[in-house]
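Posting for a labmate who doesn't have an account.
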Amino acid sequence: MDKTKIMNSGDLDRTYLRFAHQFLEPYDDFSQLAVIGMQTRGVYMGKRILKEVKQEFDAEIDFGVLDVTFYRDDFRSKLKMPDVKVTEIPFDLYGRDIVLVDDVLFTGRTVRSAMDALMSYGRPRSIKFCCMVDRGHRELPIDADYKGMYLPTYENEEVRVKVEELDGEDAVYLVELGEEDHE
């Protein structure tokens, strides 16, 4: 398995700051804006972005956590027991402008699942999507409104976003999978 570092912690910090600016740019009043981090790394990314929002704009934005496990279209086709995590949305979604945050955009199926999940909690006015890396290979007509970078990949490659809180480092790697990694 070969891996190449694509972004380091400084690159990620600059991207979080850029996201903070982009999230707030369309609004004069931030009271209807909310950020929801998708389990797992999207949660940490969302918190980092909101830390930048607080530091740069002294603004408090509502934050929630979303697990889409039971909304995935492949949920029943997987043989192993799913790793279900917490969903916590401590505010009403009705009429809100939501920004979903996740680490990697690939086929678009996870984002579709997230939109389905959100609709079961309420009816937001709008949903935008933010990811650190768009790696291509879309299967659904979904795109990111905010992206750290576009990194076209081959089928035998993965993009891994690392966050200090879980992985002990902040970085993005392009990983080439060997034959043994596909089994």
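Reply:
Got it, the structure tokens are right above this. The chain has a mean pLDDT of 92.
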